Amino acid sequence: MRQAGRHLPEYLEVRATAKNFIDFCFSPDKAAEVTLQPIRRYDMDAAILFADILLIPIGLGRDVWFVKGKGPQLNPITVSDISNLSIDGAADRVSSVYETVSKVRAKLDGSKALIGFCGGPWTVATYMIEGQGSPKKEKAKCFAYENPEAMDDLLKALAISSAEYLIHQANAGADVLKIFESWAEGLSPELFERLVINPTAEIIKRVRAAGITKPIMGFPRGAGLNALEYAKMTGITAIAAGTDTPMDKFRDALPNNMPYQGNLDPLALRIGGDVLKRAVQTVLDTASGPHIFNLGHGVTPDVKIENVQAVVNHIRTGDGDYV
Ligand code: CP3
């Protein structure tokens, strides 16, 4: 999950050698190294590529930069900018990411999976329209109502370039592809279908048309019941659940015993001790069928290494030494 490395001293050491975060993402040796670090330390079953969902806007010709304490920043896109996006070659302009993928795959043990990823078109569009993260995405939602054609064009540009991006990652050695739709919350079912389901289905159609048969996971975070339509209509192989999801009820509602992933509260991981132990046990007790243990959202930078290790041990052996 995003920011996973920030609690690791070995991550911070490599991070300090990069000029800035975007440069870091485009440095295959460094990015490959930090992708592998958590696997070395914790022996988890899968590694996630070190990159960011906001690299595709760069491929499309937009500037993205990170400001300490403020997060990602972009120049808010306008209706006329949308017709000037450089869709052709967008995925080629971020090709150092595929180099990272092949470097990781070459070093990662054959028993471990490598997860490649992109952002969901709607989530990436919210950053492009608003110029930064915001709590309610009001500006992006109003843009979708007021400029439906421009919005559809933007989502289409993102779907085309993200599909190319995933195809390159799969061809470079990613075993699983994941689509992070982090801002799927608070959308009416109609908007959800238009802004989330249709563009995601477009990505998956394109990836499959390129002959890629690898599993594709979707993470429509906070989507509530809309997540069920997402599971049925997009063509995903598996779904990730945010912290707010009751894993027993979700299992019963998902189509065809669909594999799911989730959903430990990242704040329980921060608190540790008995709180964390109970939270891990609840996920284990309530999830059933094909289940991949994971957090419900990103790892906070203040978690203790001992607690991450304890979670892994708990899942594997039934108990862990929480602190
Ligand atoms: O954690 C990993 O190393 C896996 C790779 C990964 C990153 N970002 C690296 C990263 C993944 C899968 C992401 C996805 C991502 N990026 C999402 C979707 C998932 C989610 O958490 O909702 C989103 C919304 C982003 C955009 C983004 N990138 C934000 C909001 C931030 C936080 C900025 C801040 O100042 O807090 C980032 C930065 C980022 N992406 C970091 C990492 C490791 C932290 C960079 C650092 O300071 O070292």
Question: Would you write up a description of this structure?
Answer:
- 50% of the residues lie in helices and 13% in strands.
- The protein is an alpha/beta fold and 323 residues long.
- The protein has a single domain (4-240), classed as TIM Barrel, CATH 3.20.20.
- The strands form two sheets. It has a seven-stranded parallel beta sheet with strand order 1-4-5-6-7-8-9. The protein has a two-stranded antiparallel ribbon with strand order 2-3.
- Strand 2 and strand 3 (71-74) form a beta hairpin.
- Helix 1 (9-15) packs antiparallel against helix 3, helix 7 packs across helix 8 and helix 14 (273-286) packs parallel to helix 15.
- 43% of the residues are buried.
- Coproporphyrinogen III binds next to strand 3.
Brief overview:
With 323 residues, the protein is of the alpha/beta class. Helix content is 50%, strand content 13%.
Q: What is the helix fraction of residues, given as a range? A: 40-55%
Low-confidence stretches: none
Which ions, cofactors or small ligands are bound in this entry? coproporphyrinogen III
Shape, principal axes of CA atoms:
globular
* Cα end-to-end separation: 22 Å
**Number of separate helices:** 15
The ordered string of helix (H) and strand (E) elements is: HHHEHEEHHEHHHEHEHEHEHHEH
The CATH class? Alpha Beta
Mean of the pLDDT scores?
97
Strand fraction: 5-15%
In the CATH hierarchy, the third-tier topology is known as TIM Barrel
Major sheet attributes: 7 strands, parallel
Q: In total, how many beta strands?
A: 9
Strand order of the largest sheet: 1-4-5-6-7-8-9
Tell me the structural class. alpha/beta
How does CATH name the architecture? Alpha-Beta Barrel
If you compute it from the alpha carbons, what radius of gyration comes out, rounded to the nearest whole angstrom? 19 Å
